[in-house]
TrEMBL record:
Keywords of this entry: Membrane, Transmembrane, Transmembrane helix
This protein's name: Uncharacterized protein
Transmembrane region(s): 12-33, 45-63, 75-96
Length: 102
């Protein structure tokens, strides 16, 4: 029972968010070592890190405050949808805003 309590603790989930964010940011960093097609600068890493970290922390906030139910699921899906839309806009400019990366 102690393992389950540890896995459900807020400290463990926040540590998992930090590790997952670092892992995702490591992918383009490693890719930059092998190809010239991936060209991220410090600003790109900072924006992506802030976006991933804020998404993870928003999900943690929803998990802590809403125990179960349809509302919790809908809010989590909306958070992920917003993440993917912002990421796509920054990458290729699907909406044509001035923040588009293309």
């Amino acid at each position: 029972m102690k393992i389950r309590e540890t896995l459900n603790s807020g400290k463990f989930r926040i540590m998992a968010i930090l590790i997952l964010t670092t892992g995702i940011l490591a992918i383009p960093l490693i890719a930059m070592q092998f190809t010239h097609e991936v060209k991220w600068n410090l600003t790109d890493f900072m924006v992506a890190g802030a976006l991933l970290l804020s998404t993870g922390l928003a999900i943690e906030l929803v998990i802590r405050n809403l125990k179960t139910g349809t509302l919790r699921t809908i809010i989590l899906l909306v958070i992920l949808l917003v993440l993917f839309l912002i990421w796509a806009e920054l990458a290729v400019g699907i909406f044509g805003t001035p923040f588009a990366g293309s």
